[in-house]
Amino acid sequence: MGIPYAFVRALKGEKPYLDKESRLPKQQAEFLVQEGNMRGKYLGVCLDSCRWGSQTTVMYEMDINGLIGFIENWMHQNAGNFQDLWHERQINELYKTFELPFIRNETCSVDSNHNDVILDRKGRLRCAHKSEKKFKPNFVVPYMFFDRMSATRKINFFQAQPQNLPDCAWDKETGDLSPEYREEMNIYLRKLDEFEQEEPNFLVTDVCYAILSDDGTILSLETILKRLNLRPDQDRVYCGGVWGGNGIWDGCELVDELSREEKALYETIKRCPGHTRPHGKTEFSFDGWYLAFYVQKWHQQLSGQEPPIFEK
User: Fold this and answer.
1) Strand partners, 65
2) Which of 67, 88, 144, 271 matches a 20 to 30 Å C-alpha distance to 158?
3) Are residues 124 and 185 in the same domain?
4) If 0-12 CB within 10 Å is exposed, 13-18 middle and 19+ buried, where does residue 119 land?
5) Count of domains in the chain?
6) Do residue 122 and residue 147 come from a single domain?
7) What is the value of pTM for the model shown?
8) Measured distance CA(103)–CA(211) in Å, rounded
């Protein structure tokens, strides 16, 4: 990747292209998206003028969708000639090779022992390893989830064993079952007996489908930015503060937000297990000039037409 291009320009004594007039990066981004403020300006310098920087990374106060909106706004303001305004230099002047962030795995990212492969309709090489499990049919529960390795929504299954009554069902002084829970106990015992007697003959076949390679396919701008982004989409925050800090906290203030598994954990540890919150930021290991080259490469994937902006 080399030295950031903005730093190279500074070493040459060249002044910044844009005078930000003391605007902070977020204010600069809001200023630039106003009609005409990016007209005739390089995408590289526009992106580089509205980011924070550290010794190793740069950060935008925009999430992926916000960054896409910023780029689309720049394209709109420069409609008709934006293809000449990616960067003040050509890619081959600065880099011998410059490629989009394709997936290129030699082994399955889920399990390196998986061997079977298959090509999908888009030309992506996927893991075709199959695994089988048997469940008790009256106690199997399906659920949908997004599988990051295969970039698809999948159905998974788990076996829901009958749950015993809660601790409050027993009298604390005598240890006997409270009268109002006796019928529930009978139901639980019947279900437990059914569970123990039932044979696991519900067969589920799962295909891994993890992507081994999508080299040569058409990537959306959203996909490219997601793969380049170093920061998770959401932060994990804790009621009362972050674990490891000072002080003792009473517990979770947002119990209703917790999943069933998180509630079970909370009952054990008596500490907030954490909540996910969007932070509206993206982070990259390169400056805005370099990011502009990725946008250029995205746009030039298809001759004569614009490639997809968002993932399907």
Assistant:
1) none
2) 271
3) yes
4) exposed
5) 3
6) yes
7) 0.79
8) 7
On whether residue 196 sits in a domain, the answer given is yes
**Alpha carbon distance 227, 295 (integer Å):** 13
Residues 148 and 223 both lie in one domain: no
Residues 195 and 137 in one domain: yes
Kindly report the number of other CB atoms within 10 A of residue 294's CB atom: 22
What are residue 291's phi and psi, to 5 degrees?
Answer: -60, -35
Predicted pLDDT at 78: 97
Q: Quick one: pLDDT at residue 222?
A: 97
- List C-alpha distances in Å: 246 to 241, 249, 268, 269, 274: 9, 10, 21, 17, 17
- The verdict on 86 and 26 lying in the same domain is yes
What gap in Å lies between CA 254 and CA 272, rounded to an integer?
9
Q: Is residue 254 located within the same domain as residue 287?
A: no
Full residue range of the structural domain in which residue 18 is found: 5-101+219-231+280-299
- Together in a domain, 225 and 86: yes
Q: Which runs of E-coded beta strand occur in the chain?
A: 52-53, 58-60, 117-119, 125-127, 130-135, 140-147, 152-159, 202-207, 211-213, 234-237, 275-278, 282-284
Instruction: Examine the domain organization and report whether 273 and 285 are in the same domain.
Output: no
Sorted by sequence, the CB contacts under 8 Å of residue 105 that are 6+ apart come out as: 211, 212, 213
Position 107 in a domain: no
Residue that the structure tokens 């390089």 belong to: 42
Is residue 90 assigned to a domain? yes
The pLDDT profile of the chain, 312 residues, written as one tens digit per residue, is: 667 787 777 778 777 667 788 899 999 999 999 999 999 999 999 999 999 988 789 999 999 999 999 999 999 999 989 999 999 999 999 999 999 999 999 999 999 999 999 999 999 999 999 999 999 999 998 888 889 999 899 999 989 889 888 888 888 888 888 888 889 999 999 999 999 999 999 999 999 999 999 999 999 999 999 999 999 888 888 887 544 443 345 578 888 888 877 787 777 777 787 888 888 999 999 999 999 999 999 999 998 888 999 987
